[in-house]
Design a protein that fits this description.
Length: 419
Amino acid sequence: MIGSILGGFMSWSRLQGSTNDDWGDRLNHLWTVSLLALFAIVVTTTQYVGDPIHCWAPAEFPGHYVEYVKSYCWISNTYYISMNNIIPTDITARSDAEITYYQWTPLILLFMAFLFKFPNIIWRLLSSVSGVNLERVVDLAEQTQLGSPEDRQKTIEHIAFYMDRWLETYREYKMNYVVRMRQKMTKVCCLMCSKRDGTFLVGFYVCVKVLYAVNVIGQFFLLNAFMSNQFSVYGYEVLEMVRNKVPWKESVRFPRVTLCDFEIRQLQNIQRFTVQCVLPVNLFNEKIFIFLWFWLVFISIVTCGNLLFWIYRTIFRQSRVNYIAKYFKSSEDIFTREDKKLVHRFTTDYLRDDGLFVLRLVSKNSTDLVLVDLVKELWHLYKNKNGRKAGSSALNNTNKDTLDKDDISKDPSKQPLKP
């Protein structure tokens, strides 16, 4: 029943989500969530299909007493005292050694999966505020690899036209002191997230990546609080045991043999019993959380490195120009020195941070060949617009010169003085 519910809620298409992100994000919200969901199913099956606990009861207990002891000790918390130590008589000392997590392991694993998925949910819900349908653009770019050359060209032209309208729509056309100051601030810090300055998408995306990094580091603190046994150093202890070739002993964090206290009231008499119990579920918990420790360390390194890489791309503007320039190396559209200068303006003034961000996503989710064709189409659109503007400016200057000559011919007083 639980497996069917989880299967319906976490179908692969729903879990995978959109493709408008990079591999670092998918490592968090797709593969890590899948692993945690799988572990939750394994632990849940172990708890509810078999017997999660077995208790050694006194010989005078009949069968239904034994079932009562098992149920009571599973619902309440058992505690761990090593076989080499004497069981303390103080009840408070026993309470300090209680193990309180094993009943809630499936729920904590699902909660961890939700935390890993949460940044992706935020990204999918709010990325459309930028005015561009990222998922649709990426899907169309990916489909160009399967169609005929004619369909491929039409699709790329359609994407370029759509991006051109988006880039021209969200642009600042009124310049004043406030606008100029805001533009200077967005050049220094893209986290200003301004659509008209072309920094909304990339700024919001960096914020989402910060959420991924905070989440994966916070998972260690969450497991420390959940298990109450310094989970953050668990992997170091395992490595130390392997390095020193120490025989694998029963873990203090995941003991398989524990103790349970319960009281039975008979009339006015209260009898207290202490029984020894076995937790087979901890055999799975131990291996699962060892793997999770190393997996979380790996995800932390990858996520933080990916975040720093995107911050570098955002801060250093020359890397943006170099990124676009490399797609023109095989192009024959760059003829003159003016064209090379125009490429710089094409990158910084036309595409800006958000346009470059969309192109990077297209490259990561399709191929560089698709991106080369898309950049060429955008370049043609941009160059035609600048050519028309230059032609219009030249025509205005020519008309002005003609009007000036006509005025001079009509009014001799306007003629220049001869020396």
